[in-house]
Amino acid sequence: xxxxxxxxxxxxxxxxxxxxxxxxxxxxxxxxxxxxxxxxxxxxxxxxxxxxxxxxxxxxxxxxxxxxxxxxxxxxxxxxxxxxxxxxxxxxxxxxxxxxxxxxxxxxxxxxxxxxxxxxxxxxxxxxxxxxxxxxxxxxxxxxxxxxxxxxxxxxxxxxxxxxxxxxxxxxxxxxxxxxxxxxxxxxxxxxxxxxxxxxxxxxxxxxxxxxxxxxxxxxxxxxxxxxxxxxxxxxxxxxxxxxxxxxxxxxxxxxxxxxxxxxxxxxxxxxxxxxxxxxxxxxxxxxxxxxxxxxxxxxxxxxxxxxxxxxxxxxxxxxxxxxxxxxxxxxxxxxxxxxxxxxxxxxxxxxxxxxxxxxxxxxxxxxxxxxxxxxxxxxxxxxxxxxxxxxxxxxxxxxxxxxxxxxxxxxxxxxxxxxxxxxxxxxxxxxxxxxxxxxxxxxxxxxxxxxxxxxxxxxxxxxxxxxxx
Length: 470
Ligand code: NAD
Known about the structure:
Layout (H helix, E strand, L loop, with lengths): L3 H4 L8 H13 L6 H17 L1 H12 L3 H27 L2 E3 L9 E8 L2 E5 L7 H12 L3 E5 L5 H14 L5 E3 L4 H8 L5 E5 L2 H14 L3 E4 L4 E5 L5 H13 L9 E7 L6 H13 L15 H8 L7 E3 L3 E2 L4 E2 L2 E3 L17 E7 L2 H9 L6 E5 L3 H10 L4 E4 L20 E2 L5 H6 L1 E8 L15 H10 L3
Nicotinamide-adenine-dinucleotide binds next to helix 8 and helix 9.
C-alpha cells in the first residue's frame, strides 16, 4: 500500500522531504542573507501580488461573498502595503542594534545582531486567506528565511490563486506551497522547523503547540477568542453604533478581532438597540441579502453552527437565513445574559449579542472570568474610564472609540495573550519574530584588567562588590 505521506506533494510536485532538503541547501549557502537578495525577493513578490489583484478580489467574492472594497482594504492592499513598508525599512531593521553595557563590563560595547532563523512554516486560516498567509510571509522573507506555506483549504478559490502567485513569485527552494487540509498540516507539523507561524482557532493552536513541542520548534500562535466592546455611560452613542456595526459586520463577522459582544451601560437600554438597527439599515439597506457589501458565511457547517447560537426570543434584528447561498442576516440579540449559548464560544459570524451592565468594575470582572480576549474596544469620552479598563484587563490589543482599525497599522504589534495567542507581528515586529537576536559583546584587546581572574584575592572581592550587586 502507498504510504499516504508520499502522496502529499507541494504545488510544484515535490515531497516535503525534498522541499526541506533543497530549502536547507539554499539557506545554508547564505544567498538569502544580503540585503540586496532579500529586496529582490520582496520586489518580485509585490509585482506578482499586484498582477493578481483582480483575481484575488474575484476569489474572495467566490469564497466569502466579499465586496471589492473590503477585499482590497483588508486583504490585497494590506499585503502590498506591508511589502512596501518592509522594502523601505529593511536596511535599518537588518543593522546591528547598539545596547548599553553595564559599568562592570566597560569598556566593552554591546549590540544585537539580527540573524535569520532558517527553515520556517506558515499555516493560514480561511477568513482573510490572503493577508493572514502573505503578511507573515513578508516578515519571514525580509528576515532571510526559507518558507513552506499552507493556505486554508476552506477558502478554495483563494487557495488556488495563492498557489499560482507563490509559484510564480518564488523558487521552490525559497518558498514552497502545500495545499490541502488536516492531513497536510499534520505531515508538515511532524517535521522540525526553525519557526512555525500559525493563524487559526485556539483548539487547533493547541494541536500545533503540541506538535511543535515534540520537535522543539518555536511557535507564534495567532488565535481567536471573544472580544468585548464596552459602551460606557458617556460614550458618543451615534459614533459607537456606527463603528460597532462596521467592525461587527465587516467580512460578515468572520474576523478574529471582530467585536464579539457589546457590554452596554444600562442607561443606554432604551435607545442603543434602535440606533444600531438604524445603522445596519443605513449600511446594508432593508434587505441585506441584496446588498453588494454584505458577505456570506464560508460554508454550510459554519452557517449551521451560527444558527444554533441564535435564541429566537432575543432577536431584535435579523435572524433570517438562506442555506443555499450561505446567507445569514446581520443579527442583533438584545438583553443577552452571560449564561446564554451565544456567550460560550467565539461567534465568528454576523451575530451581535448585547449585554447590559450596571457598573464598569463588575463588567470587567465578568470578562476576566473568561480567557484573555484577542481584542477589546472601549467607547467612552472619559479618559479615566479608558485608562481604568486598559490597566485592569488583559487582552491582545484594541481601540478606544473604534473597532478593528488597530490591526492595519504596521507600527503596532498584533497578537494575542494566553489562549488568544502568543507572539506578535506586523511591520518590524514580523521581522523580529522571524529573526534570532544574537546578543553580542565586543571587548577591546588593549585592556585586560586582572581583577576578574583567579587567584581571587580579598581586594578583588571588595572591588567586585563595589561594581555589581549594589
Ligand atoms: P482552523 O484552526 O480551523 O484552521 C487554521 C489552519 O489550520 C488551516 O490551514 C487548517 O487546514 C489547519 N488545521 C485545521 N485543523 C487542523 C488540525 N487538526 N491539525 C493541523 N492543522 C489543522 O481555523 P479557521 O477556521 O481557518 O479560522 C478561524 C479561527 O481562526 C477563529 O478562531 C479566528 O479567531 C482565528 N483567527 C485568528 C486570527 C489572528 O490573527 N489571531 C486571524 C484569523 C483567524
